[in-house]
Design a protein that fits this description.
Elements: H1 2-8, E1 13-14, E2 17-18, H2 26-46, E3 66-71, H3 77-92, E4 97-102, H4 106-115, E5 121-125, E6 131-136, H5 141-150
Parallel strand pairs: 3-4
Antiparallel strand pairs: 1-2, 3-5, 5-6
Length: 154
């Protein structure tokens, strides 16, 4: 009879005591919750935009040469190029506009189509807005510096 009651209750009663449901102590649950929150925060932090690249593409041709990187948050090349360009920004910030064509926005997509860009492509424009050069996902500072030097942007 006792066995039948135990089976009917789904095996919850054992020797007259009810099973509590969880064997993880309260502090363990708190620790797991905290770990999940920290991991989610870290994931969100890694998805934030890198550097403060303006997406105002109307600044091209306004009297200062401009360097535009195409960025699509669904791919890594643009993020890697932005990180690379951020290391060069302090050196060139006084004589070169650093801009981003956001490929998740209609204006960024239209700009990228007009200039044959994809995620990670860098296009350099003269002060008057003339397209000077394009680099497809540069990997090193030396590659970017050489392109800028060749364009007389020391």
């Amino acid at each position: 009879m006792a066995r039948a009651a135990w089976v009917m209750n789904g095996g919850i009663e054992m020797a007259g005591k009810a099973k509590t449901g969880s064997t993880i102590p309260r502090w363990g649950k708190l620790l797991i919750t905290l770990a999940v929150i920290v991991a989610a925060g870290a994931l969100i932090f890694t998805q934030l935009p890198r550097g403060a690249f303006s997406t105002d593409l109307s600044r091209i041709g306004q009297g200062t040469p401009a360097l535009v990187v195409a960025r699509d948050i669904n791919f890594l090349a643009g993020a890697e190029v932005m990180d690379l360009l951020n290391t060069l920004r302090p050196e060139y910030a006084d004589r070169l506009e650093f801009l981003a064509a956001h490929l998740g926005r209609p204006e960024g997509q239209a700009f990228a189509r007009r200039h044959g860009m994809r995620d990670g492509t860098v296009v350099v424009f003269a002060a008057d807005g003339t397209r000077l050069a394009a680099l497809n996902a540069p990997r090193t500072q030396a590659e970017v510096r050489k392109a800028l030097r060749d364009l007389n942007i020391p």
